[in-house]
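We modelled the chain as a single entity of 197 amino acids. Its sequence is:
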Amino acid sequence: MNKALLLKSSLALALATPMLASAESQLVTGAGNATARLDFRVIVPRVLFLGVGTGAATLANNTTVDTVTFDYSTNPADVGQGVAAAAGTITNATVPVRVVGNNGQITLAAATTGALTNATGDTIPWSQITATTSQPTLPSPVIPATGPGATSNVTLNAGKVTDRQANWTFSYLNAAVVAPGTYGTTNGRVTYTAAMP
């Protein structure tokens, strides 16, 4: 029985020894101060976040794709007259946007897969949709006719860090009379991409 107790004590001491050896200590006898040092580390990963619409609310994944709708059905006399849709008929025309990154200059670009199309194949070019930003530090990239568009720079806050928020307000120029239908049933999506080194 004593052998078992001795074995358990030896095992406990062997396991505890590396823990004791990993911390610094100093024993001072008589006058003087004792010192012990402790090192700290903070590990920060490379982070890049882009939120457009509902997704801009928190730094997390969000799969909600919002829709901006310009509806002329309540005021058809304005069709093709260069008149913005009447108040109350634009749903979510002002969209919150947030960009966060920690590794240098961030660029934004927009991409499309062709003109907005209705169910019968009629089209409205993306040049009819424009956006303005509430903050020049977070510009809205131009929406291209098709494919990837030109990039725009997001202004860095300091050093390598960016944390910018703005509202992008979209407009439909309504410069021409077009065939009836709901446009955007195909090719109605703009994909925004943030890139950082």
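As a brief sanity check on the tokenised model: The chain is about 10% helix and 25% strand. Helices lie at 2-22.
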